[in-house]
Every structure is written in structure tokens, then in C-alpha cells.
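Researcher: I need the complex structure. Ligand is 2-acetamido-2-deoxy-beta-D-glucopyranose. Inputs:
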Amino acid sequence: MVSWVRLLVLVAFLLPSLVECRVRHYKFNVVTRNFTRLCSTKPIVTVNGRFPGPTLYAREGDTVLVKVVNHVQYNVTIHWHGIRQLRTGWADGPAYITQCPIQPGQSYVYNFTITGQRGTLLWHAHILWLRATLHGAIVILPKRGVPYPFPKPHKEVVVILGEWWKSDVEAVINEALGSGLAPNVSDAHTINGHPGPVPGCSSQDGFQLQVDPGKTYMLRLINAALNEELFFKIAGHQLTVVEVDAVYTKPFKTDTVLIAPGQTTNVLLTAGRSSGKYLVAASPFMDTPVVAVDNMTATATLHYSGSLATSATTLTNPPPQNATPVATNFMDSLRSLNSKQYPAKVPQTVDHSLLFSVGLGVNPCSTCPNGSRVVADINNVSFVMPTTALLQAHFFNISGVFTDDFPANPPIAYNYTGTQPANLQTINGTKVYRLRYNDTVQVVLQDTGMIAPENHPIHLHGFNFFAVGRGLGNYNPKKDPAKFNLVDPIERNTIGVPSGGWTAIRFRADNPGVWFMHCHLEVHTTWGLKMAFVVDNGKGTNQSLLPPPSDLPKC
Ligand SMILES: *[C@@H]1O[C@H](CO)[C@@H](O)[C@H](O)[C@H]1NC(C)=O
Ligand SMILES: *[C@@H]1O[C@H](CO)[C@@H](O)[C@H](O)[C@H]1NC(C)=O
Ligand SMILES: *[C@@H]1O[C@H](CO)[C@@H](O)[C@H](O)[C@H]1NC(C)=O
Ligand SMILES: *[C@@H]1O[C@H](CO)[C@@H](O)[C@H](O)[C@H]1NC(C)=O
Ligand SMILES: *[C@@H]1O[C@H](CO)[C@@H](O)[C@H](O)[C@H]1NC(C)=O
Ligand SMILES: *[C@@H]1O[C@H](CO)[C@@H](O)[C@H](O)[C@H]1NC(C)=O
Ligand SMILES: *[C@@H]1O[C@H](CO)[C@@H](O)[C@H](O)[C@H]1NC(C)=O
Ligand SMILES: *[C@@H]1O[C@H](CO)[C@@H](O)[C@H](O)[C@H]1NC(C)=O
Ligand SMILES: *[C@@H]1O[C@H](CO)[C@@H](O)[C@H](O)[C@H]1NC(C)=O
Ligand SMILES: *[C@@H]1O[C@H](CO)[C@@H](O)[C@H](O)[C@H]1NC(C)=O
Ligand SMILES: *[C@@H]1O[C@H](CO)[C@@H](O)[C@H](O)[C@H]1NC(C)=O
Ligand SMILES: *[C@@H]1O[C@H](CO)[C@@H](O)[C@H](O)[C@H]1NC(C)=O
Ligand SMILES: [Cu+2]
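Model: Output:
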């Protein structure tokens, strides 16, 4: 008997080192720091004084605990973009949707387990415009001993694309809300925090990526910009896409990657040259002529080991800003890997068939110089943020915070991408769409021509979805479903709705809670292009939302 007890004690002692899944502890101190870019210095909000912020590393199956301490003057929340948050909506992060903000001087521990996901995601602030500087990478490695479904790269490098304003970003959006017009565009794009050399501003080196000839590297690309979709290119090199939004893809080669805010893309880069320096470029994609964008190309350098710093850099031409064919070609090439090990579980039937028009509108504004303000909406509803978080209202049955009458279809059917209606007004509302646990949902996201058609990268919290179809003009419910890909469509969490077109997505509501869906162009979110799904608890064990943690911030 005694020896059995000893053995058990020994096993219990050894267990932690044998168990695969770990608890990873992180501390995020939100602090203000001065940074110099474009020849001027300004204070920005950072995590741990870093821009971009620290990379969060974990393995599939790990539990992650991040203690966020707010030392700045703003209310703060952090969102773990793309993490499923199964039953842990309290850790999702969007302010007033799943939690009240962490107020100055307060802290909150985000506690979540990474289940069934591996690849690259990002974390970012989900309140105000703080995510301009409050963002970083999430690297989820496969479980120990599980290989990538592609040759193991020699090295892995996180590459974060962003935007930099000379002004304070909160001043930029507040000025726009006062005028009712579009906010100023950024002053530069950045690659790992640096714009690269800028005319009229000396001593601004860009990011350098050192490579050894013949070796293969995996770049974990992240678009952390607020308002701009970006093209990414490296002179003289092709890239092999192997994963997007932490889902493996069928590998394909391309010379240009399209990446929208909130999206991530892992590419393999083979250093197939013998020496030299090659330009890395990130430039905007915008195919709506009337919408202003920051037209500065951010640059970095791919530097072969042994090449002199003074050797000439091989240049590349970024695609034109309005290169719709380049964007379409990239989107068309994306397919889920759909292997035996990583199947694409596309819902084959749908319980809820929804048509959501997404676009802009114009509402009266007595304090605005023009007497009107630009707004944005889904199905004519400009979402108004509540003052109590929706998830709390849902869990504690607090009435009067939201209504669950979000329309399944546009209230008025019209030619969405044709001549705009005379009346561009929207209605205000804090409306949600209710789903039962395990319901299947199809949402056709239909762009509108209100003011102008525009590409909207739509992000869904709490789920991955399958992008089963896409087209130009108005969605035709009789003809278009026949063309859907229900076998190996790309699975992701953020998808661009083509300018003047539509995208159909499907997902299974297997995660109880309240889940935000919104445009990931921050300006459109601010203007109201957002809504939420409420997913009720299921009847089985493990099918209900867990209770909130005791340190959940209060409003
Ligand atoms: C940032 O720089 C400004 C002016 O150079 C200075 O007044 C301020 O104290 C600095 N702030 C921080 C947080 O270092
Ligand atoms: C994290 O959440 C789990 C439940 O999902 C709970 O068991 C655990 O105690 C929590 N950890 C901390 C440090 O709060
Ligand atoms: C926005 O741009 C205008 C025109 O360049 C400038 O006058 C204004 O100060 C800018 N606003 C902010 C907040 O930087
Ligand atoms: C970028 O935009 C600015 C302002 O709209 C314009 O003056 C400039 O010529 C543009 N530059 C390029 C390279 O297109
Ligand atoms: C607002 O007014 C300005 C100047 O009066 C004008 O140029 C602009 O087109 C107006 N914008 C809208 C959206 O009405
Ligand atoms: C709609 O909500 C916005 C704030 O989100 C407010 O400024 C505006 O006055 C509201 N409009 C109406 C008609 O209630
Ligand atoms: C909220 O209402 C539901 C359904 O009526 C009930 O099951 C649940 O216990 C209530 N929750 C709280 C916290 O009162
Ligand atoms: C919608 O408008 C477009 C552009 O004006 C036009 O080509 C199309 O025929 C219209 N569709 C319908 C159904 O009226
Ligand atoms: C949106 O709602 C407003 C206010 O009720 C209405 O005037 C307008 O016609 C609606 N527009 C559409 C396209 O549904
Ligand atoms: C969800 O529904 C599918 C059928 O659509 C069923 O096969 C599956 O078992 C259900 N899952 C749960 C957890 O109820
Ligand atoms: C519920 O979850 C626990 C822990 O995650 C797991 O051990 C258990 O098997 C699950 N039960 C069911 C019925 O899925
Ligand atoms: C911060 O959040 C709290 C809780 O919602 C709110 O009462 C307060 O007004 C917010 N502070 C600012 C500066 O917005
Ligand atoms: Cu948008």
C-alpha cells in the first residue's frame, strides 16, 4: 500500500512537466511613453512602454492570464482578436459589449483558454481609438509535438503593419465627431513601428529583416492599422500563404498580400537570392475614389547576411491604390486547408438566413457646421453604445439595456448598390439578434452605395466563419447560393465585403454569450457600423456561459 502511495505522490509531482497545457501569465502595464516618428515626439498609450506592444506566446490548449493595469488617463479594455473565448465572453474585451472599461488606476485579469486554434492573431485595445498604438501579436504554437502542415521554417518573424498620426488620435476622432465629417487620415504607415525613410526627415531607419541565403522564414503578418487595408510586397521574392486568422490554408504563391485591419496572414519567404537588399513595402488599398487615404508607403528592408549596409536596395512598385484586381485575385486564392486533421466544418444547412446591408448614412446634427453628420449602419440601424455592458445585462437579466429586435433584413428593400435613395437617414438603436445554442447562421453582408460604395472589413467576435460566396452588385438569393463553396471556403474572423458587392458567411452558434460584429475600419465602427449577436445557453453541460470573474470592472 505504502509503495502505491509513494508512486502516486511521485506521479503527481512529475505531472506538471508532462502535462502539455500550461497556464501562461502576462502583465500588461498600460502606460504613456514618448515616441519619436516622422521627426517629432509625442506621448502615446502603450503596453509596457513598447510600440508595437509585446508578443503574447502560447500553445494550443494553454490557459492565458493577462493582468492589465491601467496607469493612463483613459478608460481601457483589451480584445484578444480572433480568440474564440469559448464560454468566457467576460474576457473578450470590447467595451460596453462584454465588459465595462478598466478605469484609470484599476486592473483586470483576462482569463481564457485557447481551444482548437493555432497560428497568428493580434490583441488590441477595444475602446476609443486607443488601438492605434495599443496592439501586439498573439502567437499560438501548435501543441507540443504537432508539426505545421508545411516544412518547418528556419525562423519566424512577427511583422506588424500600422498607422501613425502626428496628432493625438483621440483629438483626430473628436474633431471629426464635432464636424460630422471624415477624420484626418494618418501621416504614415508603419512596419513594426517604423515608417522607413520619409522625405524631409533624416535618420529614420526602417525595420530590417536579416536573412541567410537559402533559408525559409515564416512572416506572421498582422494589420493593426485603424482605417486602412494594405498591400504587402517584397521586391524580388514570392510569398507562400499558409495560414490566415489562425486557420491553415491551402498553400499558394503570390507576390502581393492583401491584409485588412484585424486580419493576420502567415507567409513563407524563401531567401532564394545570394545577397543584397530588397525593399519591403506596405501601401494602402482603397477602390473608392472619394474616400481619402494615407498614400504613404511604409518600407522596410530584407537584408541578406554578408551584404554591405551600403549596397543598393532592389526596389518594387506597390500596386496602385485602387488595384481591385490584385485584391480580388488574392481573395479568390484563399481556401481552407480542409485536410483530415484540419477539416473545414462548413454548416451545410442554415437556421437563420440573414441579409445585412452595411454602409454609410447622413443624419441631422444641430451642432455640426454642415447641419448634418456622416454615420454608418447595419440594416439602417446605427448602433448606440449602452452604458451597461451587454453581456452583464444578458447574464443578470437587466432590462432596458438592449432590445433583441435587430432586423434580419434591411427594413426597406432597394437597389443597394445602385442609385442611392433620396433619404440617407438611419435610426439609432442598441439592438441585438438572438440565436439559440448550436443554431447555424448565414449572413449575407451587402455593401450599399449610400454616399459611396466601399470595402468594409467585417469582424465577428466569438466565432470563426466560412466565407462561402462573394459577388458584385446586389446579392441574388435565387441564383447566388448555387455558386457557394461549401467544401473548402476560407475560414476566418474578419472579411472584406467588396466595394459595391456582397460576401456570404456561415457559422455555427456554438459559443454562448454576447458577440460583437462590426466593421474593422475604426472610423466606421465609431459611426455605428456595429451590432451584436446574443447566443443563449444550451441545455447540456459545458453549453452555458461561465459566471463573471470577481474582478470584472464595474460601470
Ligand atoms: C514627453 O515629452 C514632452 C516634451 O518633450 C514632455 O513634456 C513630457 O513630460 C514627456 N512625457 C513623458 C510621458 O515622458
Ligand atoms: C480562470 O478561469 C477558470 C475557469 O474558466 C477558473 O477555473 C480559474 O480559477 C481562473 N483563474 C484565475 C486566476 O482567475
Ligand atoms: C486635421 O487636418 C487639418 C488640415 O490639415 C488640420 O488643420 C487639423 O489640425 C488636423 N486635425 C488634427 C486633430 O490633427
Ligand atoms: C498623396 O496625397 C497628398 C494629399 O492628398 C497629395 O498631395 C500627394 O501628391 C499624394 N502623393 C502621392 C504619391 O500620390
Ligand atoms: C460640408 O460643408 C463643406 C463646406 O461647406 C462642403 O465642402 C462639404 O461637401 C459638406 N459635406 C457634406 C457631407 O455635406
Ligand atoms: C443618435 O445617437 C447619437 C449618439 O450615438 C446622438 O448624438 C444622436 O443625437 C442620436 N440621434 C437621435 C435621432 O436620437
Ligand atoms: C436570468 O433569467 C433566466 C431565465 O429566466 C434564469 O434562468 C436565470 O437564472 C436568470 N439569471 C439571473 C442572474 O437572475
Ligand atoms: C441597380 O443599379 C445598378 C446601377 O445603377 C443597375 O445596373 C442595376 O440594373 C440595378 N438593379 C436593379 C435590380 O434595378
Ligand atoms: C432608415 O430609417 C429612417 C428613419 O426611420 C428612414 O427615414 C429611412 O427611410 C430608412 N432607410 C432605409 C434605407 O431603410
Ligand atoms: C449541433 O447540431 C448538429 C447538427 O446540426 C449536431 O450534429 C451536433 O451534435 C450539435 N452539437 C451540439 C453540441 O449540440
Ligand atoms: C466539460 O468540460 C470539461 C472540462 O473542460 C471536460 O472535462 C468534460 O469532458 C466536458 N463535458 C462534456 C459533456 O463535454
Ligand atoms: C470610464 O468608464 C466609466 C464606466 O463606464 C464611465 O462612467 C466614465 O465616464 C468613463 N470615463 C471617461 C473619461 O470616459
Ligand atoms: Cu467599414
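Model: Summary of the prediction. The chain has three domains: 15-141, 155-333, 352-543.
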